[in-house]
């Protein structure tokens, strides 16, 4: 009266090559996704909806230093469901992008959510250039990326 069926869960037996082949098509996202590609944070589309000119992925605008506080306050007034942490991660993700760093080195000024402009310090431009150079050096050293 032994059950001869292999257990579906917690089985210690190796799967046969045939079962691996049948499982592969069910997860195409895993096989085609690049391991280094980062997902867009959950709150970022909300930022793009409210401030499309500030959070443009193709043409980034350098943001005013300290923009997080007014962004959070504005989104709370609009009853958006995102936490302060989620909003902060979305802005941080945007500001660490390669395209944003390039914009920071070339743009004439930073912009706040109200449209006011603020100067970009020489130190900020130099730091952005250092980050760009470090990323390019890393990419050249690891061509698989």
UniProtKB/TrEMBL annotation:
Domain ProQ/FinO, residue spans: 38-145
Protein name in the entry: ProQ/FinO family protein
Q: Which GO terms describe its molecular function?
A: RNA binding
Enumerate composition-biased segments (Polar residues).
Answer: 13-34
Q: Which taxonomic lineage does the organism of this UniProt entry have?
A: Bacteria, Pseudomonadati, Pseudomonadota, Gammaproteobacteria, Aeromonadales
* Keywords from the UniProt entry: RNA-binding
InterPro entries per record: ProQ/FinO, ProQ/FinO_sf
Q: Does the keyword RNA-binding apply?
A: yes
Give me the ranges of the annotated region Disordered.
1-39
